[in-house]
Each structure stands twice: as structure tokens, then as C-alpha cells.
Amino acid sequence: MVRKIILTTTLVLSSVSSFAGNPSSVADVVGRDIDQAYAGHIGMWTGSKVLEVLSNRGTIFENTLYSFQNQPTKDRKGLKAYWGAKAANITAYKKQQVINFGRSQKAYNPQYTTSFSYTEGGIGQYCIAYGRYGTCAKYKTYPINATFRCDTFVQWSYLKGAGFKPSGLLPRNVYNSFPITR
Q: Are 125 and 140 contacting, i.e. CB atoms less than 8 angstroms apart?
């Protein structure tokens, strides 16, 4: 009986740690559990920090990998909830573009959403004066607030920076759509 418990515990711990590699390249996607275990949480490695969307004020943050890996969860009772890092097979230039596009959204008053949809932050415009032939002669600009959830932020950043959108409707699915495990 004792041997079965020890063997089972050893197998579980070794299978968890085998997937818990750290990021080694810019734009690697890291994941971890949160209190809603079905969903999880993901972010992107900048080369020195994790770029992530949180529900806190400010929404888009760059936090240490240690902080990302060691967030406490109520339902895990002290077990590490870090999933590890995964990557896409893209060039170094595209990897940096993914991070650059993600960081650019900090300038557009980012907001957190629980929705599956997102809004790219930017500058919008509308016509306030028409010319002689019905074309717009003068525009007024207005800010468009960025709105993301952690998984939609990663998807949008990859779409803009690398030209493809990782699949999935939840953070764990988006994380699992990356083919390379670190």
C-alpha cells in the first residue's frame, strides 16, 4: 500500500515537472493555473519579464517570471501551478514584433474583459466637415481603448506580430496550441 502511494506520488510529480520548462526565447508563452482551474492564465516572455493582462487596474503588466510562477491559488493548496513555456516556430524578428505590438497597447488605456472578444487600442477618426464633392475635408480623432483578456491579448499580439492567431477559446487551449515545449 505504501509503495503504491509513493510510486503514484513520484509519477505525478515527475509528470508535472517535466512540463514546467522556463522560457528561453522572446515571445515564448508561459502558463499557470488560477483559481478558475478550467481556464488558467497565460502571458508572453519579453526576454526579461512576463508581459501579461491582469484584471487589476492598468491591465497590461510586465512582471518577473518568479512572480508569474508563484502566484498562490486557493484551490491548489500550495502546489505550484506553473505549466511551463511553449513557443511557435517563427523568426526572431517576428518574435520581437509580437512583444512590440503587445507593449504598444499599454498606450490605449487598456481594460480587462471576461469576454471572448477584444478591442485593439488605437486612434479612430470620423468626418466633421465635407468638401465640395462629398469627400471628407476634416477629421476628428478619438482614442479607442484597448480591451483584452489574457488569452485574447496573446492571440492579438501574435496575429499582429507574427501573422497568425493561435487557436483556442480559453487560456489553456491557446497555450496548448503552441507546438514547441520548452
A: yes
